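Risk register update: the risk of archive-format incompatibility is retired. Evidence:
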Amino acid sequence: MTAPILKDRYQLIAKAGEGRFAVTYFARDLETARDCVVKQLSFRSLSEWKELELFEREAQTLSHLTHARIPRFIDFFKFEDEDGMQICSVQEYIQGRTLAQLIDAERPFTETEILRIGTELAKILEYLHGFSPPVVHRDIKPSNVLLNESGDVYLIDFGCVVAHALGEQERGSTIVGTYGYMPPSNLRASQCRPQTCTRSVQRSSTS
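Archived output:
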């Protein structure tokens, strides 16, 4: 069976993961002959419009970022098939394993390695927060930190990103991020206890 090709350019190779409302695929960019990652959202899978807003915000934010340790944004497009309207974003593929995968595999880390990973993440965040308004990731956790074969650190998954620091009155009632890693102030600001936020909060597999 021939692998599906989106936009006459991106050949889907295998499913990489599936979230609450989007599916991620390993793919091949036939135009550049390079590997990439396609994240696809189906209108049919949406339970609320906030999910579409977050998806589009992620693509818009990534399109303005240029950093060696953030996978490069490639494309954003829409199409319609038998399952309805589909929206896709495409990013550079970085071969490696997430910090969560390495921890699950009981890979030991030296104190020097831990300090280096923390320092590299801090440099990425310094870049993001240097924008005006600052770009806030809002979901820093082991599964969103990627290490390649050389040990270089990458920050991935900007699905919870916001391009400004919200005040208390602007936060609203939607909780984004991962319970166990988000700051307690996020929950206090929404006057919402963790057990009442299971629909809005993606729980960490390590918590």
